[in-house]
């Protein structure tokens, strides 16, 4: 049976000086550092047998996908199944103002962290990304494809693939900016998962999605 590899690439650093939980909001672009991260991811994947590139419709994912596709002479196709997770607090600063946990009006949104109650269920995120992965595997069978998307959907997809509970500590996600989580299939069966951080040299001082610095 043939071997097929699907690379799940997280987007690079986003320009977000207000430290907003931007979620699915349009217009959030890569920072200058984020653009450099995207190029490092492209360089990392340049030697690979990539035959197709798909990305979330959000700008930051499209910008990250562009140099990856360019080195292989490919277009970037959109796939809405790769979009960021939905979140009730989108557009707000986490821990501030209307998004404060200490505000009793918000307690209902934190009622069930296992689902989670504040946003799109983990199970739903994993299901849609797995569907996109299977579509890509079928289309490029025997070769490789790149899917550019977002941290939480990548991480719950990996947990699902490994047969682990989807509830987790967000601080322990192995899915940093412009990281590459590679799913290796032999025929239709998942044979292994690899992980790389081609943009690690740029992590010092970089700001993650929550507004916190990586290092």
From TrEMBL:
Stored Gene3D superfamilies: Phosphoglycerate mutase-like
Pfam families attached to this UniProt entry: His_Phos_1
- Family annotation (CDD domains): HP_PGM_like
SUPFAM superfamilies on file: Phosphoglycerate mutase-like (SSF53254)
Instruction: Name the domain of life.
Output: Bacteria
Q: Which InterPro entries match?
A: His_Pase_superF_clade-1, His_PPase_superfam, PGM_Phosphatase
Protein name, entry field: Histidine phosphatase family protein
Which organism encodes this protein? Brachybacterium kimchii
